[in-house]
Amino acid sequence: MTVREVNFDGLVGPTHNYSGLAHGNVASMSHEGLVANPREAALQGLEKMKSLMDAGYAQGVLPPQQRPDLGALRELGFAGSDAQVLARAADEAPQVLRAVCSASSMWTANAATVTPSVDAPDGRAHFTPANLQSSFHRYLEPATTGRVLASIFADEARFAHHPVLPATPAFSDEGAANHTRLAGDHGEPGVHLYVYGRQAFGGDGIAPRRYPARQTLEASQAVARQHGLGDAQTVFAQQHPEAIDAGVFHNDVIAVGNGPVLLYHEYAFRDEAGTLDALRERMASPLIPVRVPVEAVSLDDAVASYLFNSQLLSNPDGTMTLVVPGECQEREAVWRCLQDHLLAGHNPISEVVVKDVKQSMRNGGGPACLRLRVALSEAERAALSGRVLLDDALHGELVAWVERHYRDRLAPADLADPALASETLAALDELTGLLRLGSVYPFQR
């Protein structure tokens, strides 16, 4: 059975803008109010997808959400025509308008948590959409995310879909951004590392003081139960509170793993030694930890460069490629660490590829945020519905679609423009046809 990791990247939506909605995300907050370029953002994402596809990696595509979410505005009491609803929201609740226009679904690492069939007791791949309840603009996503995933992974004999966890602080779930599967290779039974920021019930009370901890232990445990994972397959580790307070709002901003390799910062885990010991105890193949000490890369440099929010990709010869954002070249300590500590070190990372995803980075999302990893067998890949696995033809059509429908300038003040809403609906309606997904958006149902 040939199992390959497929990276499903999120297409950047037509309303990509810098509204600074994510408290604790330093990049998002610091770029609030800047003029964004949705067209450039989407094309940067597609270029990254195409380059990885050309290099031999399996690449998929997930569509953006319907934005602005006019249904959410109407639920909040804004009435009238679409134009009237937008105008009133802009006048009375501009932050709410910004939230319902967010293009944050581009970061599909938050879309769901996935367990491959090789690990599940029923032999199916399991999906749980994240509730994203910690922020209103992301709380709006799970319903559409669930429909999209159910449309693509529709074969009930091979794929299982679970309900979103209760949208309460106790079960705050941010998806695969806090989940890493480690194994000798993708076809070997794996160990699932769930990283949480706080405990809702009990615990010792040690938590970040400056920024909120988004993922709860209780949410991670619930997802593992939904997917049928046992104690021998799971490790639950607390994220270091100091890292969260430095702007590490998800674990994938401070650690990345693939196969047997775990690349992590010294301040990734509150109990570093205990976490590594638990992984070693459970893994069938030896764990290969690659530790970056704070003396080499400070927390500030890690957050500014998104070194650890890079894609770690497995190669057939056993080596690994690290896909980093261009910002890593701009920080001397980070670039030196990549050359002297990682590439020259005794580990499988043999290549560093730099990608320009600056439009996404300014909102706080690097290469790893932009993709949801799904390990699939050859039969499972053949069973996918829709047209979501990237090839040259689909890439060309998507580039043309972006160039037809996307603006090259969008400021927060433009979000009240009713023409933007109409443009977005027309674009998404065409996109579902290109991807053969059916009616996944509220306006299509």
Enumerate the strands of the largest sheet in spatial order, edge to edge or round the barrel: 2-1-15
CATH fold title: L-arginine/glycine Amidinotransferase, Chain A
Shape: globular
* CATH classification class: Alpha Beta
CATH architecture: 5-stranded Propeller
Number of H- or I-type helical stretches: 17
CATH superfamily: Succinylarginine dihydrolase
Query: How many β-strand runs?
Result: 15
Q: Compute the number of structural domains.
A: 1
Give the overall average pLDDT: 95
Q: How large is the share of residues in beta strands?
A: 15-25%
N-to-C CA distance = 38 Å
The helix content is 25-40%
Main beta sheet strand tally, sense and closure: 3 strands, mixed
Provide the structure class: alpha/beta
Structure description:
- The protein is of the alpha/beta class.
- The chain has one domain (about 5-445): 5-stranded Propeller (L-arginine/glycine Amidinotransferase, Chain A).
- The chain is about 35% helix and about 20% strand.
- The chain has 17 helices and 15 strands.
- It has helices spanning about 25-30, 40-55, 70-75, 80-90, 95-100, 135-140, 140-150, 215-225, 240-245, 270-280, 300-305, 325-330, 330-345, 360, 380, 390-405, 420-435, and strands at about 5-10, 60, 110-115, 125-130, 160, 180, 190-195, 235-240, 255-260, 260-265, 290, 310-315, 320-325, 350-355, 370-375.
- It has a three-stranded mixed sheet.
- Helix 10 links the parallel strand 10 (about 260-265) and strand 11 (about 290).
- The longest helix is centred in the last third of the chain and has 18 residues, at about 420-435.
- It is globular.
